[in-house]
Amino acid sequence: MASICCAFCKQEIVKVKLIQTDLPDVVIIEPAVFGDDRGWFMESFNENRFHRGLQELGLPVPNAFVQDNHSCSKQGTLRGLHYQLPPYAQGKLVRVVRGAAYDVAVDIRKDSPTFGKAVGVELSENNRRMLWIPEGFAHGFLALEDDTHFLYKTTNYYNKASEGAIVWNAPELAIEWPAGPDMQILVSEKDAAADTFAVAPKF
Questions:
Q1: Catalytic-role residue among 149, 152, 157, 158
Q2: What's the mean pLDDT in 94-103?
Q3: 83 carries an active-site annotation
Q4: What does the alpha-carbon distance between residue 29 and residue 67 come to, in Å, rounded to a whole number?
Q5: Catalytic residue among 51, 70, 82, 83
Q6: Mean pLDDT to the nearest integer, 143-161
Q7: What is the pLDDT of residues 24-57, one digit of tens each?
Q8: Which residue from 131, 121, 117 is spatially nearest to 174, judged by alpha carbons?
Q9: What is the 3-state secondary structure (H, E, C) of the chain?
Q10: Is 82 a catalytic residue?
Q11: Predicted local confidence at residue 180, as pLDDT
Q12: Is the dihedral of CA 122, 132, 156, 126 positive or negative?
């Protein structure tokens, strides 16, 4: 875990935490939040601190972010598992600004010791966590609440010809999506027809 000091209001020193998941290249970011009786403030992104935190964990610095995306989903909406192949591969920095989502990354790098493994993290407006998902991973999320707003930055532009997708319930991955008995999973026709992990193109 890397902690990066930064100064917010009234020069109070607080820390941004970078925490490696079970897939060490996938990193949880817990931003520093300064609050008082007026509300709160946080720095949602600082490139220098982000890069320095990754380096302290022994991880590579990504390419610059070039595109921001914003989606709104009703409870039970499942988007994924998506990725783009080289030369348009994307790293993603994702967060939820309203509602809550279960966010999943899957390692699809053939030469990786964690190839074929998945990790899931809950992101919400309350925990304010972000998740860094580098190139070489498939990504998806399940909206746990209605009106869930999901924001993410990408290190490459969208390129339709480079799209890849793995079906959300691929048996090889055995992802435990936290859908309760009363939650209806909503998946697009395109995502429902995505490849199984076995046949999907890999890195």
A1: 152
A2: 99
A3: no
A4: 19
A5: 82
A6: 98
A7: 999 999 998 999 999 999 999 999 999 999 999 9
A8: 117
A9: CEEEEEECHHHCEEEEEEEECCCCCCEEEECCEEEECCEEEECCCCHHHHHHHHHHCCCCCCCCCCEEEEEEECCCEEEEEEEECCCCCCCEEEEEEECEEEEEEEECCCCCCCCCCEEEEEEECCCCCEEEECCCEEEEEEECCCCEEEEEEECCCCCHHHEEEECCCCCCCCCCCCCCCCCCCECCHHHHCCECCCCCCCC
A10: yes
A11: 86
A12: positive
Strand 2-7 relative to strand 13-20, pairing: antiparallel
The whole-angstrom separation of Cα 196 and Cα 138 is 12
Tell me, what amino acid is at 130?
M
Interatomic CA distance for residues 128 and 164, integer angstroms: 29
Tell me the domains of the chain and their CATH numbers: 69-193 (2.60.120.10)
